[in-house]
Input
Amino acid sequence: MTSLLQIAPTIASYFGVHLVSPAHPIEQILKFAYSHYPVPHTVTLVVIDSLDLKLYYGLGNELATLHELVEQGGLLFECDTVSNHTTPAIASILTGLEPESHGILTSDDVGKSKIKSILELMEEEGKQAGAVIERKGAEPLIGKLSYVYGVKDREGMDIIEYDKIIKEHTISILRNGESVQMVFSHIRTIDRFAHRGWDLHLAATVTDRNVSEVADAVAAREGLLLICGDHQAHLRNRGSRGDRGSRGVGRVPLIVAAPHDINPVSTLNKK
Ligand SMILES: [Zn+2]
Output
């Protein structure tokens, strides 16, 4: 079984950074990473909020880029989640610790924890890291990472604009951050649409386009791209609401790819 807890230990192992976690690195990812880039290249980790396995497969047409990344030589893991909520789930992804160990359960806890994320640990060992996330989550990272973009939260459908800005900053770090080794970003349109009972086909289409553009930027600098969900989607009709801190019962995809011009035609059309 694979768990979201293994992502941070895997990245730490790839870069030779010391991280304490009860979880083990995913050997298949390390093998994949070293076979593409024996000297570690930039790792971009994109968390797609609420992307669970059911949505990944059910919205396969809309999420064509994600599926292509897997089909064209990438890896797909089905990961156990650790929480039903975004803040503790993402903290677990970035620390390799269970929510009860990192203690970051609500947005008020962000920045108060003494536990360091893989991003901070990399910086401490002289490897540049960047994060593109919601403004409040970004604030505690300012001054600790080489690149921090905090994007102001937006209401309702404007979450699409929010994700567009997240995508643009992520690409800008990949293009301009000559020495950056790890970039983390968090995109949220699918989560917002799921909560509101809005059209997930549209949310998935928008998300896939953002991922596609990030993948092109990763390809251009010959890096690795990791994409995962954070928890099971809170679909209105699925009755999957858990209590805060409750254990995730869900499984989410983790995609690992070394994209090389996955879709040259669409890249040309975007310009
Ligand atoms: Zn979430």
Observations:
- The domain at 2-270 is CATH 3.40.720.10 (Alkaline Phosphatase, subunit A).
- The chain has a mean pLDDT of 92.
- The chain has twelve helices and eight strands.
- The CA atoms of residues 132 and 185 lie 5 Å apart.
